Amino acid sequence: MRDLLFLAHRAPFPPDRGDKIRSYHLLRHLAQRWRVHLAAFIEGEDETVVREGLAPFTAGVALVRRTKGRVRAALEAIATGRPVSLAAFDSPALQRAVDDAIAAQDITTAFVFSSQMAHYVDAFSGPIVMDFVDMDSAKFAAYADTARGPMRWMMRREARLLLAHDAGVARRAEASLFVSEAEAALFRSRAVGARIHAVENGIDTDRYDPAIPAENAPHPLIVFTGQMDYRPNIDAVAAFAQNVLPVIRIGHPGAHFAIVGREPAPAVRALAAQDGVIVTGEVPDVRPWLAAADVVVAPLTLARGVQNKVLEAMAMARPVVASPQAAEGIDHDGTIRVAEARGQARAVLDLLADPDTAAALGKAARAQVIARYGWDARLAPLDALMEPAP
Length: 390
Prior knowledge:
Blueprint: E1 2-8, H1 18-30, E2 34-42, H2 47-54, E3 60-65, H3 70-80, H4 84-88, H5 92-104, E4 107-113, E5 128-133, H6 136-146, H7 149-172, E6 175-178, H8 181-188, E7 196-198, E8 221-225, H9 231-251, E9 256-260, H10 266-269, E10 277-281, H11 287-292, E11 295-298, H12 308-315, E12 320-322, H13 324-327, E13 337-338, H14 341-353, H15 355-372, H16 375-379, H17 382-385
Parallel strand pairs: 1-2, 1-4, 2-3, 4-5, 5-6, 6-7, 8-9, 8-11, 9-10, 11-12, 12-13
GO molecular function: glycosyltransferase activity
Protein name: TIGR03087 family PEP-CTERM/XrtA system glycosyltransferase
Keywords: Transferase
């Protein structure tokens, strides 16, 4: 069994948010064929819990606690001409851990999860497989379109510098991965000559089981799940609560909108003052909230790649109303309702008015996920990509 260096900007345990779910399943898959040495950042997690969770899949683990704030990262980035995304994850301690692993182990290949980590293997001479997941430079370009003043300049700068960085990394890598073919195609148009592939996310349909007991919550219940300090999620729930929920409550005065996710930003917490809005903060498990939902919504206007929140709701056999942006990249075969902002209230109202149709839609969505999105099937193409070109 050969030795693999696996780098991640967040330790892949616990798998409790979109990027960590993907990195966790990638790590598990690779550990079947490689002896994996992991180097990653942790933030608020308990280090002992993280190490215990990763132990079955790793031969060695180096964890560095990331404490650098956004302001410091921005100042360092401007001073050095780098993207803020790279400065934010720059750490001499992690570089030492990477160098020590390469020196002590017979590392033949590096797997890098997220472009913020690519510079740690600048001196590594072996093949590199790069998982960009999403095209983050496009996300910052979209932010710039709605920003003003200095922030508009910063977002444009970030989009430009990050794209140049990522294109250079991709041209060096044996393979560059994206979570959907749409993301891969967009990056191919910007990084000519790179070897770019789509390796999609999956879903654990045994864990996301509709039979899980539901949360005791008011009905009708509309649910959104996500990391609630993440700007696309913040914007999505704010717009839905302010513009869509009031229309729904005309027809269903008792309807509630539950925003389920950790670290709600002040703008999200403030929504709890609105009639019908529930802001849970961190919960032990989102599945009971999904099980309780009459409808799950994903009204994101800025979304990259495949939205795990949509796959999870589908696996739980919930009827889903998603924006076109949130549905992009998901092979749902008509088993979710896709609606622009102006049509989301109507789509939710139609499902609430016809529980039989809503239940049938949810059942079809789960069947689609089982058929299309098992992790083993989604990650099978990775095995060939991990082999260096002859």
